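Please predict the structure of the following assembly.
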Amino acid sequence: MQIDVEHIARLARLGLSEEEKKTFGDQLAAILTYAENLQKLDTAAVPPTAHAIPLKNVLREDKAIPCTNVEAILDNAPEVENHMFKVPKILE
Amino acid sequence: MQTKTAHELHNLLINKKISSLELTEMVFGRIDKTENKVNAFVTLTREEALKQARAADGRIKAGKDVTLLTGIPIAIKDNMCTHGIRTTCSSKILADYIPPYDATVVAKIKRAGAVIIGKTNMDEFAMGSSTENSGFHPTHNPWDLQKVPGGSSGGSAAAVAADEAILATGSDTGGSIRQPASFCGVVGLKPTYGRISRYGLVAFASSLDQIGPISKDVTDAALLMNIMAGHDPLDSTSVDLPVPDYTKALIDDVKKVKIGLIKNLLGEGIDPKVRNAVKQAADHFSKLGAELIEVELPTFEYAVATYYLIAPAEASSNLARYDGVKFGHRAKPTKDLISMYYETRRAGFGPEVKRRIMLGTYALSAGYYDAYYLKALKVRTLIKQDFEKAFGQCDVLISPTAPSPAFRIKEKVSDPLSMYLSDIATIPVNLAGLPAISIPCGFSDNMPIGLQIIGQAFAEEIILRAAFTYEQNTEWHKSKAPVE
């Protein structure tokens, strides 16, 4: 099985070393080959189960409540400016 | 004193035979002695714990707001947010993260007056079966320091087994409470999906994750369930059903209870000594008056493959939030936003987390979604139906918790698939959202063996009753790990 490791890493925004690309390529191929076993089961008429317990959307009133721990939240940020998260420039 | 259970200590506390402060100091005394060998914790919160112990003593003295856990030292798995105390998930990407809030279970444990002694080690983001994937250090099994404690809640199970904590919390996505409980000779309960709020639990695979207790006996598991269970408006997947008093389920009687022995989990790939111990446990139940039925759940052989598509798919989506923007590690300096993402995640995540993000991203990617992810969701339905059939004729099902006792450190690190297969007996339960408990049922070369008892959704009471009955009529849980 051939897996385009670089393409998948790009989708996942994951930086990998050359060694990791090789190892993950081999390991993912082994795991996915094992997963091929599932093809033995006929599931044409079987509905998918995304959640084991039936769930439905839970709505609440759209009500503003005060946020009192802004400082504690910002304290965890790598870079802050004027009470905002700072990131590298995205527009020229 | 720290070798006692929470319910034994509760009686000593309310009868003023001991104070919570003394008890907490004894637990830290034990930690000072054994923690350098076991390495169960990521963070110890000694000062804060002594403060909480004094407050608990105040409550007991005043006879006000005393719960069964008031003054009892408890360890919290490090993927549950603790206000003001760093919560790392054993990941470098969260090494300095200080939550600005408590997880709902932590808030409930604090309100009950329990004493939080620290945060326990785990496989990074709960991905693993040995706690070797911790971004900081491995944890050692208190029964044999050369062996793994299981995982991902290995720190919690090892802490309880080594008497470094009276109780602990764990989380279980594919066996992460039950398998370490089995490896460390303690009790671990994974409740029904939705029974306990996941608010403040760092998400791994949201349709499978569930919090539960790790304890020295079944009674203590019921006590902690009473505190943790219940609906939470902050977790829309928590279920709004009344919470029973789980201690009322602790009845020493299994007469007429229909117990299904899962035959296909006693075959090939299961250690003969484990198989033997489980068969003897089944015979014991039958001697105690239970009705023993042999059942087959044939789709279980597809459960590991199903899980290792669904869980990584959910994880790859959940872990997208670790991008270096709002919290956690950020690589710097980087030339642009995209390279900030790449470098932050390269440096912050360990190999197993990267492997699962890759696997999940692949399973969800264009062209493969139907063949892998959707196929797995359909097989999940078949596994659920297998359980439904079995529960048509049984009240509970039993099996080994794990196919073998604890393995050696490093034994399975280089072969992820063989590590994944060690979850064969626990994974189907998460896929179906059911409750299950692991309790000690024997030893193989001085290493504990765990018995898994599975119930229908929200039938925690019947599995607690079966587990309690077995425990009352056996001595396995009384053996202590030899670490000194």
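DSSP finds 15 helices and eleven strands in chain B. Residues 30 and 164 of chain B are 6 Å apart (CA to CA).
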